[in-house]
Write a structure and sequence with these properties.
Layout (H helix, E strand, L loop, with lengths): L15 H24 L13 E6 L11 E5 L8 E5 L4 E4 L2 E3 L1 H10 L4 E7 L4 E8 L8
Parallel strand pairs: 4-7
Antiparallel strand pairs: 1-6, 2-3, 4-5, 6-7
Length: 142
């Protein structure tokens, strides 16, 4: 299928040789720049370490303890075994960005089973540091 010069796209007007040259030049510059960046050790590099792990799930998939302190269970993925994590006085809970008490969190999750939940925890101790709940949009706000 041929296209008229008026309907062709601007990048199609260039010859194949000029496009190949442009792509080759871009790749050559990127390759030339990267060894210099990697070899420069004059800048101190901080060691990275993982402080928290996270799990994203639905409210219906989460089992909270009867009180604010206790064992929370959640499966990290559909085919994964459930994890037992610990909640306590240091666990902070938020619903749509606002801090809430454990009781309000529990009632919210029961009322909104499709709410999105992000759990942040320390893998070494299994302690939950934060629970972030995002409520689904109401039909009028969609």
């Amino acid at each position: 299928m041929t296209s008229s010069p008026r309907t062709s796209l601007p990048w199609r007007r260039r010859s194949a040789a000029s496009m190949l040259f442009a792509v080759s030049l871009t790749v050559a510059l990127a390759v030339a720049a990267s060894p210099g960046l990697a070899a420069d050790r004059s800048m101190p590099m901080a060691a990275l370490r993982v402080l928290e792990h996270s799990i994203e799930t639905r409210a219906a998939e989460l089992r909270l303890p009867a009180t604010g302190v206790g064992r929370l269970t959640v499966a990290p993925c559909r085919d994964c075994r459930s994890l037992a994590l610990l909640t306590g006085a240091a666990t902070r809970s938020f619903v749509d960005g606002a801090p809430v008490t454990p009781d309000v969190l529990r009632r919210t999750l029961l009322a909104e089973p499709d709410a999105s939940v992000a759990l942040f925890y320390r893998r070494s101790s299994g302690e939950v540091t934060r629970i972030l709940v995002t409520l689904p949009l109401a039909p009028a706000r969609r």
